[in-house]
């Protein structure tokens, strides 16, 4: 579990609790997802590379830093879309590369339906965005795609993980850090995280 980072930030703890509440409406749910994404992004980007840079202030020159990495956000459709806006508030210059996957309801295996990545990688760091890490199948498939694309520095950023999903992702890709707001108890027999928050896609989009 050494590379699983569970936020202990009081604001994340509070917002996640409201998010889980079944009486939270779609509008509030989307806003909380955005805010949690921002908080988790702050924690997940602590090791970005910077280089020295000089800036001229109204009073003279100051020594500062500029970020060096070219970052790609990879939201897994649909539910990952809700995390994009919050992350982009901190990282306005990122590229966004959507990956479409849905989970087959019977097998729980991910089925790919959208991928428009260009032939050559255009970023050197990818943040995979998906609120729920359940069986881990979707996350593993997405990281597989990104590594084949040629990106080696990849992080997973989500809201709630099941132990099963963490085990699967860390086994398949031990180099991929996992940043979440909570690790829950287990998966139920239809692959939902318990206690979780229900279906993150349906709750964001009112379906
Ligand atoms: C949910 C969720 C993840 C996936 C997690 O998506 O948003 O993408 O399931 O499950 P896994 O870890 O077992 O792969 P879903 O298939 O319901 O699609 P949606 O986002 O379009 O609702």
What's the arrangement of secondary structure elements?
Layout: E1 4-6, H1 10-20, H2 26-44, E2 50-57, E3 60-67, E4 71-77, H3 84-90, E5 95-96, E6 99-103, E7 110-115, E8 125-129, E9 132-133, H4 137-149, E10 153-157, E11 160-161, H5 163-172, E12 178-180, E13 182-183, E14 186-187, E15 193-194, H6 200-205
Helix pairs in contact: 1-2, 2-3
| Contiguous uncertain segments of 5+ residues | none
Sequence of secondary-structure elements: EHHEEEHEEEEEHEEHEEEEH
Q: How far apart are the first and last residues' alpha carbons, in Å? A: 34 Å
Integer average pLDDT: 96
Describe the structure.
The protein is built from six helices and 15 strands. Helix 1 (10-20) runs antiparallel to helix 2 (26-44) and helix 2 packs across helix 3 (84-90). It is 32% helix and 30% strand. A hairpin with a 6-residue loop joins strand 6 and strand 7. The radius of gyration is 17 Å and the shape is globular. The strands form four sheets. Strands 1, 4, 5, 6, 7, 8, 10 and 12 form an eight-stranded mixed β-sheet that branches. The chain has a three-stranded parallel β-sheet with strand order 9-11-13. The two termini are 34 Å apart. The chain is α/β, with parallel strands linked by helices and 207 residues long. It has one domain (4-45, 70-205): Rossmann fold. 1-O-pyrophosphono-5-O-phosphono-alpha-D-ribofuranose (PRP) is lined by residues 76-79, 102-103, 108, 110, 130-139, 165, 191, 200-201.
């Amino acid at each position: 579990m050494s590379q699983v980072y569970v936020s202990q930030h009081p604001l994340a703890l509070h917002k996640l609790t409201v998010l889980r509440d079944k009486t939270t409406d779609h509008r509030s749910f989307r806003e909380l997802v955005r805010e949690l994404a921002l908080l988790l992004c702050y924690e997940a980007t602590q090791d970005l590379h910077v280089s020295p840079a000089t800036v001229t202030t109204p009073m003279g020159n100051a020594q500062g830093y500029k970020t060096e990495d070219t970052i790609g956000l990879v939201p897994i459709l649909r539910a990952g879309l809700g995390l994009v806006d919050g992350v982009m508030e901190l990282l306005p210059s990122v590229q966004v590369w959507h990956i479409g996957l849905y989970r087959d309801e019977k097998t729980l295996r991910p089925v790919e339906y959208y991928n428009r990545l260009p032939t050559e990688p255009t970023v050197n760091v990818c943040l995979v965005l998906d609120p729920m890490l359940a069986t881990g199948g979707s996350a593993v498939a997405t990281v597989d795609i990104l590594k084949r694309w040629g990106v080696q520095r990849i992080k997973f950023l989500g809201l709630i993980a099941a132990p099963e999903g963490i085990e699967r992702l860390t086994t398949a890709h031990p180099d991929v850090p996992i940043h979440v707001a909570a690790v829950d108890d287990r998966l139920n027999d239809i692959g939902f995280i318990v206690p979780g928050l229900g279906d993150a896609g349906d709750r964001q989009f009112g379906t």
